[in-house]
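request received
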Amino acid sequence: MNEASPVLRKSAATRQRVLDAAARIFRERGYAATTLGDIAEAAGLRTASLYYHFESKEELVEEVLRIGTTLVSDAVRRAVEDLPAEADFRTRLTVAIATHLDALLRLTDYTSADIRIIGHVPPEVRAKVWPLREAYGEFWQELLRSGRANGAIRAGADLGLLRVLILGTLNYASEWYKPGLKPVGAIAAEATAMVLDGILAPSAMHRQPA
Amino acid sequence: MNEASPVLRKSAATRQRVLDAAARIFRERGYAATTLGDIAEAAGLRTASLYYHFESKEELVEEVLRIGTTLVSDAVRRAVEDLPAEADFRTRLTVAIATHLDALLRLTDYTSADIRIIGHVPPEVRAKVWPLREAYGEFWQELLRSGRANGAIRAGADLGLLRVLILGTLNYASEWYKPGLKPVGAIAAEATAMVLDGILAPSAMHRQPA
DNA sequence: CCTATTTTCTAACTAAAATTAGATAGAAAT
DNA sequence: ATTTCTATCTAATTTTAGTTAGAAAATAGG
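response:
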């Protein structure tokens, strides 16, 4: 059978079905409320057969989390890096927000499962996938740093705090978003407008209450 | 025993201890990962004794959620209503954000438990407490409506979308906040600045990329 | 075809956790 | 003191879900 062969093992397809089902159901119901039976049924096999592909429920969810973080991280990095070198901060942040939300809300159950359950998986699992998340956070931090270096971001801001506030704004959408109500692009536009310019009317006086 | 008597039942104190313990542990570990044994131990009694005070785990968590929503809702309503009648939108939103974050991060485990687990409790439980949450959401919606009526909020904005974006920004803090790192007031100030004015430096050109 | 390997299945097993039953101690009232 | 509720306990029950063991299909090569 030649494990290193270019031919896919037949089990690869099953493993993929299991992961897809797991991502979807974890996202819908949360970690603890999802049983291996639920996942097996959705993937079209028996509960015990899952153990041929994964050592445990924890290993399965770990893989889902890993994929979820990787998908959004790769997509956002690529989208930003593909911008022309002279693109300004406003453009770069706009693209980063749009791509992050697209991965989270439209593209993949893995990322929404990741965001929704990361705080509810066993600590050992969280610890294992943490470095990946930190690296993605560091990408955003660097994006903001470059924005402040350019003078685009107001000087007094705590960038670490801004980062978690912005990502919170985006990530919390996985709690309320329902497909079909509003295109993801429109949500991204409104979020970008708020983060960059705030919600006030441009004419309004600066700082002072009336 | 005279149930309507002004004298507190001795069980009221125990019930309160159980609720306090439940709120704290639900917040820390999530709904499904919290056992009645954990709660009982923290409250200083035996698992079975919980059933004297609550019919089931679901009824217990429902009460925690109800209290959590009520506490933050009442605090924010009161703080905003206590402002002078002529207070402008900027002031009202600043106070609403500060009070919401204070309830969520500093005051009470009930509210943080509520926010963290509402998406992970059994659907029947969520349905029962939903009206309370909707009412609180409606308060924010009305706050934003008044802001737009005043011309304070930019005209094109989708207020429903703005509302969930703002509350998402605030609520997601329950996922990353750790006491001691930064005073809650400083977090509120940064969040308010972002929501109202955005993160860009005031001098920067409007709209156009460089 | 025959055989070895991969994949999935059926059937236990185990452990944890929610819940129930019924006994007991404590407080308050007659 | 005796009786009556209130509150908590110990001990069992039940259910659910993760996991393991080992037998059977299915698949691929020779």
